[in-house]
């Protein structure tokens, strides 16, 4: 008897009815690789093993580094107890963003390799688990890269990194999806470009908003929607639980840009207040207008782009597509600064 939630049982039944190849069925198998649009689905491996834990108990799930026993291909498994898988679980939301309506098939995201139910998983004391299988990017996150660089990045490198993130967001937004948690720790450093990961807080816009009950003491007629994100990276409308659309990702990108430029998230960067006259305060909240204290050696184009991303109102922010046309991206030659293993070996 499989111990799992009714949601999990329904999902596995659907997989078994609508599977594209036999490995989509229940079992410990790496199921599919999507090589590209229109290409046939191919089986990668029949069996695989877990090598060790990369992150433990991350929002009910554990991330394992795994290896195929057939071809030694490495990948990651985001594993959750089957009875804990629900529609709003981060693993299920990530699977939906990868697979719903239009599958994500972009070099700016880790490849989706499959989703399955594993019976009596030995690494979880014999419990039944669900596995979300994704490409492994061994260089780690942009946050780790920043730490290795002692939190100091040249503006040219920041420009290339920001371009890659924008390309990924433009692709995601074109599919009617929102990431919901852009920050340095959710960006992976690949061999040829950055990759946006951890889509578990994302949204599919066609699903509509999830409306919440008003908070105690609030106007009972005020709209309140379910929003996601990390403190310090959330747009004003997200913090206020008003809305969360593609422009919220652009605001989070601006916060990530601050982190790349200073080594710290925006809430830890000192502010410079532009005026002490109360008449100059922000009319929407009465707070004195201020700007982040970022080193003066960054170009005017950088500051202009940052201001466009961090605009308080979403309508005043750039879209991902229009942001890619900003003059800042034409100021430097945009060559990806990370050396591949082959180039490192040849030197």
Automatic annotation (TrEMBL):
Gene3D superfamilies: Transferase(Phosphotransferase) domain 1 (1.10.510.10). It comes from Riccia sorocarpa. PANTHER family: CCR4-NOT TRANSCRIPTIONAL COMPLEX SUBUNIT CAF120-RELATED (PTHR48011), MITOGEN-ACTIVATED PROTEIN KINASE KINASE KINASE 19 (PTHR48011:SF4). Residues 27-329 form the Protein kinase domain. Pfam families: Pkinase. SMART domains: S_TKc. This is Protein kinase domain-containing protein. The lineage of its organism: Eukaryota, Viridiplantae, Streptophyta, Embryophyta, Marchantiophyta.
């Amino acid at each position: 008897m499989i111990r799992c939630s009714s949601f999990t049982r329904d999902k596995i039944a659907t997989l078994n009815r609508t599977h594209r190849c036999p490995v989509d069925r229940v079992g410990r198998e790496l199921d599919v690789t999507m090589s590209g649009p229109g290409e046939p689905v191919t089986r990668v491996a029949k069996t695989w093993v877990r090598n060790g834990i990369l992150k433990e108990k991350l929002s009910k799930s554990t991330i394992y580094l795994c290896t195929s026993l057939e071809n030694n291909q490495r990948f990651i498994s985001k594993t959750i107890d089957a009875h804990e898988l629900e529609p709003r679980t981060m693993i299920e939301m990530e699977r939906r963003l990868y697979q719903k309506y239009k599958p994500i098939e972009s070099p700016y995201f880790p490849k989706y390799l499959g989703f399955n139910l594993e019976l009596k998983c030995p690494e979880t004391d014999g419990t039944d688990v669900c596995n979300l299988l994704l490409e492994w990017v061994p260089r780690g996150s942009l946050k780790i890269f920043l730490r290795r660089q002692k939190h100091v990045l040249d503006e040219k490198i920041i420009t290339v990194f920001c371009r890659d993130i924008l390309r990924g967001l433009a692709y995601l937004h074109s599919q009617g999806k929102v990431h919901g948690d852009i920050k340095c720790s959710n960006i992976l450093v690949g061999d040829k470009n950055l990759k946006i990961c951890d889509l578990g807080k994302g949204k599919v816009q066609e699903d509509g908003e999830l409306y919440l009950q008003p908070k105690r003491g609030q106007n009972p007629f005020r709209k309140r929607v379910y929003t996601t994100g990390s403190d310090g990276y959330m747009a004003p409308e997200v913090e206020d639980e008003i809305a969360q659309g593609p422009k919220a990702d652009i605001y989070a990108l601006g916060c990530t840009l601050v982190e790349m430029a200073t080594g710290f998230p925006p809430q830890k960067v000192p502010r410079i207040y532009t005026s002490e006259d109360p008449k100059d305060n922000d009319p929407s909240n009465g707070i004195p207008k201020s700007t982040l204290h970022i080193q003066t050696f960054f170009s005017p184009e950088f500051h202009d782009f940052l201001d466009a991303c961090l605009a308080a109102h979403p309508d005043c922010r750039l879209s991902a597509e229009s942001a890619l046309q900003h003059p800042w991206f034409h100021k430097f030659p945009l060559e990806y600064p990370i050396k591949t293993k082959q180039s490192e070996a040849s030197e």
